[in-house]
């Protein structure tokens, strides 16, 4: 890794001088770090098409594990990809204990191990769109979310908009109007057999995450909800009981919320994730006509904690968590005296109410009961946020001593890291 003199960040993997390609972390719903933090798994288009690469953090050697030569598969969030051809960039997930990568190539569900041995597990049924996949903590099950293909049935060249050519129509509104379904498809990671398929009516699922301790429970979402985002976004499916239930509900007690903002269907909620033990679900978003917030839900008790951010923390970001419950964020923070750079707002515009112009990677220490967040800026990521791949999506190492993130500071997306260690006076 090469030391970058600005703010202590270090370049992990990126484009050598004289070349031009992009390298990014896997999506935040899984780790990009192998067991013991010895290796990092990333996506890179250095061959002309995106593939999974693994890098040894001790000697810097990198190997390409997948064999994609057909570009990017059409899926969420890659709307202008090719139908049934290419690597599903959104599909790549890592079983970090066994260091096995799962992914979709063309219409095939595949896995590849550290030695580069590729196994085809199953096939995506005709007429379906896929999204971010997830592997269970015990490595036995793979969940592939699918939606009726009509949800993304459009010509991105004529009906798309922005850098990512997303549809100009409201996708969730089409799902509701036309009665489209999503499917939680769970496969055996050894045999590849489809173990079950749960139909979720009038739903566009893009994120799935197994409960860390109980693979019968899957957290899923309603993406870009066209109404009632504050309560429609996050859901739990219990396979043993065959039940679906929303995570965030309207009203009721919310702990750690001295400002007194009530939970509303009109809020915006996003980017849910489990704590390591499955005891809590972390999410963030914004109150209707109010500030941004970060929240925690305890399924066992049904209790909520939500902490409102300062009103001038209005720059979009993500929260993820280490094994001790500390958060990391790539958005929101700003110094009181700071005048932000004037940036083009990202063309990757979803339904969120916040601009994508944040610049800092911050360690964030929550006190949920007191309703406080301690923000510790570690470095500037300086990404331009233009498109999904340039979102920093910071993650902790397993040891919690480093934070890895994406950034496009110039022409290409690269992966960086920064130490998460802070002195007592900073905390």
Describe the structure.
The protein has 427 residues and is mainly beta. Helix content is 4%, strand content 37%. The chain is built from three helices and 32 strands. The protein has helices at 156-159, 171-178, 229-232; strands spanning 2-3, 10-13, 23-25, 39-44, 51-56, 62-64, 93-95, 100-105, 108-112, 118-123, 128-130, 134-135, 141-148, 160-161, 166-167, 181-188, 194-201, 208-210, 217-221, 234-238, 243-246, 268-274, 281-286, 292-298, 303-308, 319-321, 327-329, 360-367, 372-380, 395-396, 402-407, 414-419. The strands form eight sheets. The protein has a five-stranded antiparallel sheet, with no helix packed on it. Strands 11, 12, 13, 16 and 17 form a five-stranded antiparallel sheet that branches. A four-stranded antiparallel sheet has the order 3-4-5-6, with no helix packed on it. Strand 4 and strand 5 form a beta hairpin. The longest helix is centred in the middle third of the chain and has 8 residues, at 171-178. The radius of gyration is 20 Å and the shape is globular.
